[in-house]
Amino acid sequence: MEPEEASAQEDGGSRLMLRVERPVYDEEFLGTQLLHRKQSSTSFRQKLSDKFRCSSERAKAAALSFLPILTWLPSYPVKQYLMSDVISGLSTGVVQLPQGLAYALLAAVPPVYGLYSSFYPVLLYTFFGTSRHVSIGTFAVVSLMIGGAVVREVPDNMVIGPTNVTNSSLADKDLSPIDARKVQVAVVLTTMVGIIQFVFGLLRFGFVAIYLTEPLVRGFTTAAAVHVVISQLKYLLGVKTARFSGPLSAVYSVKEVFSKIKQTNIPSFLLGLTCTVFLYGIKVLNERFKKNLPVPIPGEIIVVIVSTGVSYGIPLEKHNVSIVGYIPSGLRAPAVPDFSLALNLIPDAFAVAIVGFSMSISLSKTFALKHGYSVDGNQELIALGLCNFLSSFFHTFAITCSMSRSLVQESTGGKTQIAGLLASLMVLLVVLVIGFVFQPLPQTALAAIIIVNLVGMFKQFRDIPPLWRTSKIELAIWLVSFVASVLLGLDYGLLAAIAFAIITVIYRTQSPKSSILGHVTDTGLYYDVNTYEEASEYEGIKIFHSNSSIYFANSDRYVNKLKEKTGVNPKELQAAQEAKRKRKKKDNKEQNSSIKICAEHKDATEEVVPQSQEMQEVRNGELEDKHSEPTSEAAAFLEPLSSVHSIILDWTAVNFIDSVGAKAIKQVIKEYASVDVRVVIAGCNRTVLDELNTLQFFSEELSTNMVFPSVHDAVLRCQCSSSRPPGASSEA
C-alpha cells in the first residue's frame, strides 16, 4: 500500500491547498486492514450497574436537576437583581390579575378560579422551572381547550341534581350545581394533564415538541384566536347564546350570535367597544415607545378599575349588563378530583398537555437564547406536570406560559422567577383581601381584554406571504393547521395538523430530488450535471444521487428514478438483445435458404461432372457460413448493450435502509449485472453499512468490495476495471 500523504498550505497567501495521495479504498479493505472496532471491556451487567449506582455526587446532581431553584437562589445577587425583579413582578402581576379573571370565562368556570390558577402554579414553577423569564399562569389557547371539554361534558342545558356533585368541597353554596359540575370537569382534566406531562418528563419525552413544527403551532394558535374571539362576541354584544363544542362549533357559534344580534345590549356593546379601542391604543403606545417607557402602561388593570368604578356608579346590572358576580374571599380547602369523569377526557388531556408544553418550551428557548442560558425540556415537562397536578387539588385549571405576560416580565427587567413569585403574591392579596371589589366588573370589559391580547396572534397571518416564497410545504402545514382547527375544533384540528405534518415528511422522503452527478475538473468534487455547467460526466459511468433514505415507502420509486435518470433499463436492454438475436437468426435462415435454392437449380440444369476444386470451394464456403452462424450470434451477445458500463449509487444522503430497501437494491444490482453493467455504492456511512450487514445484504456475489468510502474512490475503480482487457484480474 502506498503511503498516505496530506498537506495543507497557503497558495499565494490566499487559499489553502489540500493534497492527498492514497490508494483507492473499498469497504473490504477498510474493514479488514485499515479500521478495527474498539473492543468494549464493559459488560451489559456492569453498564446497568453503573447506570443505577448511587453516590453523593449523583444524588446532588439529581436534587439540583429536580429543584433548579437550588442552583441559582443561594448565589442570588440581591443588589443587582432584586429591584429589577420587584418592578417586573409588580408589572406582571398587574397584567396577570385581569387576565386570570378573563381567561376563566374561556375555561367555562367562574372567574375566581382564574385567580386560583394564577397563584398556585406560578408559586410551584418558581421551584421546579428552568426558565427565568416566562410567566406561568392562564393562557387563552389552553383555557379555550379546557372550556371546550367542559362544555362538551356539561352543556348549559344539562340538568344537574345534587347527587351529581360528588365533591363536597366543590358543592359550595356559592356555586350553582351546573357550575360546580363544570369546575369538577376542569379540575380532573387538569389533574390528568399534569400526570401526562410529569410522566413524559420522567421518560425523557421532551422531544415530543419537535413534532409540533413552528408553522403548525402558529397556524393552530391563530385558529385558536379565531375561536376565542367568536366565544367572546356574546359577552361583547351582551346577548345570551348557547356554547358549542366539537366540529363546526365556530360556525354554529357565529350563526347563533348573528341570529340574536337584534337583541344586542347597547350599554354592554358601547362599554366593550370603548374598552377595546382604549386597550388597543395602549398596546400601540407601549409598542411604539417601549424604549422610552420604564414599564409598559398597564392598560388591562386601568380598564378593570375604571369599568368596575363605572359599574359601581351606574348599576349596570340593572341595564342587563352581565357582571363577574360573587367572588369569595380566601382560598378553598384542597380536595381530591372526581376521577369518575376522567374516561371521556383522555384525548383532551393529551392535547392540552402537548400544546401547553409546546407553547412553554418554545417561549422558554427564545428567552434562553436571548439571555445566554439553557433550559431543560424534560425538566420543563416535569415542572409543568407538577404545577398542573398539585394545583388541581386546589381547584385550578390547566396552565402554561403566556406570551403577553412573559414579554412584560422580560421587558421590565425581570432576571429570575422571583418576579413571577411576586406576581403570584399580588394575585393572592386580591384573593384574600380585596376580591370582592371586582364583583361588579362587567364581563364585556373582560371580553375586551381577551380580544385585544389576541392581536399578536392575528398578526401571524403575516406568515403566509414569506412561506409562499420560501416553502410551500410549510405554508400547506400552516393553512391545514389553521383551517382544520377552525372547522374541526382545537382537539381534532391539532390531530389533523400533526397527521398532515407527518404526511409531508413521508411525502418528502417518497419524492426526493434525484440527479446525475458529474465531476468538476481537478477537484474531486461531484455536482448535478443539469445544474452546473462545470460538472461533466465520465464516459461510460453514471453517478446517481438521491437525497433520501431507502425504505419500504420509497424503494420502488428509488429504483424507477435510477433507471430513468441513468437511461439504462435492464429489461429494455434484454428485450432489445433478444430482438436483435431473433433478427440475426432470421437473417441467417433466409441466407441459408437462398444458397440452397441456388445449389438445387445448378444440379438440375448442368451436366453431372466430377466435383471440381471450384465447386468444393463453394461448398466449403457454404459450410463455413453454417459454422459462422453461431459465431456471429455469439458476437452479437458479446457486443455491449449500453454505452454505460458502471453505475455508482451515491449514498452520502442515506441515513437508514430497511429490509425492503435492501432487497430492492440487491435485485437492481443483479438486473444490471445481467446486462454487463456494474453497480457500486459510494459514500455509505458506517451506520447504514452495519444495517446492511445485519440485513445480510452482502454475499459471495455482492461483497463489500463494491462499497467505497467516497464517490471519487468508486469512479477511479470503475475506470480502472473498464480499461482492463477481458479476463484480466479485477483486483486493484
TrEMBL record:
Q: How does it sit in the membrane?
A: Multi-pass membrane protein
Q: What InterPro entries does this protein's entry cite?
A: S04_transporter_CS, SLC26A/SulP_dom, SLC26A/SulP_fam, STAS_dom, STAS_dom_sf
Source domain of life: Eukaryota
Q: What's one GO-annotated cellular component?
A: membrane
Residue ranges constituting the STAS domain according to the UniProt record: 531-718
The UniProt entry's coiled-coil ranges are: none
- Transmembrane helix as a keyword? yes
User: Which UniProt keyword terms apply here?
Assistant: Membrane, Transmembrane, Transmembrane helix
Q: Name one GO molecular function term.
A: secondary active sulfate transmembrane transporter activity
Disordered as annotated region, ranges? 570-596
Residue stretches spanning the membrane: 102-127, 134-151, 183-203, 215-237, 266-285, 297-314, 349-369, 381-398, 418-438, 445-461, 476-507
Predominant location: membrane
Q: Does the keyword Lipoprotein apply?
A: no
Instruction: Tell me where it resides.
Output: Membrane
Q: Name one Pfam family in it.
A: Sulfate_transp
What CDD domains does the record tag this protein with? Answer: STAS_SulP_like_sulfate_transporter
Listed NCBIfam families: sulP
- Provide the protein name: STAS domain-containing protein
- Please give the organism: Poecilia mexicana
